[in-house]
Request: fold
Amino acid sequence: MNKQLPLRAVIFDMDGVLVDSEPLINAAAIAMFKEKGLEVQPDDFLPFVGAGEDRYIGGVAEHYDFPLDVTEAKQRTYEIYLDLISSRLNAFPGVFELVHMCRAAGLLIAVASSADVIKVHANLEKIGMPMTFWDAVITGENVHNKKPAPDIFLTTAEKLGVSASECVVVEDAVNGVQAAKSAGMRCIAVATTFPAERLTEADVIRDNIHDVSLSDLAPYL
Reply:
């Protein structure tokens, strides 16, 4: 990252960073496959975390060589998921403090999630940080190429009116870290979904978002 440029924006991934949703979407997808007669395992989904639900579901179907209408399967998965989050979804400890700290420092704040808008909207509403709270929210439906491609982060920067060099990304997934670095952005990884040793491409790794500080995001501010 060009340290001559000041940091202007912090881009947060959503699932596994802001909200503890990974176990819930995993459970919903497993339940969907079970309805269709296929028993799958939680770890089957790990290679596809952060790549959007089409790939999350479709990749597992391909792994088992299981014929699947991904659009219909995703819709059913979201139906199950939305039932689960009503009582079980929470923001990670430290999210509100860090986000408000960023805003108080004069930084733009955004969400960039490979999930569809129905999931993004529901998650952010549930934790009291609706889409209107953020300076920008970009979902998987806004880009053609999902993570690990850099498109979603570059689109977010464009929406914010800043350069990639002026952004830092907070991610939890291997695909997301790769996307952030491919976009030319500084990346802070939180080891909530993958172990730290899988996230070594990130500039800084913390155990969880509660441990992320403003100096991690912008050590030269």
Remarks:
- Strands lie at 9-12, 108-112, 136-138, 167-171, 186-190, 204-206.
- The mean pLDDT is 93.
- Helices lie at 22-35, 53-63, 70-88, 95-104, 117-126, 151-160, 174-182, 214-217.
